[in-house]
Amino acid sequence: MGWSKGYRRHRADFYLPNERPKRLWLRSLEPEARPRLRARELPAPYRAALVAAPSGQLPIKAPQMISLLQLLSHAPAPRDTNTHYRIGPVLTLIAMARLAGRREIAAIARFATTLTQRQRHRLGLPLKKGTRNFHKVPGYDVFYQVLTRMNPETFATLLSTWPCRQAGQLPQALALDGKMIRDQIGLLTLAQHEDGAPQAGHGL
Question: Structural domain tally of the chain?
Answer without folding.
Answer: 3
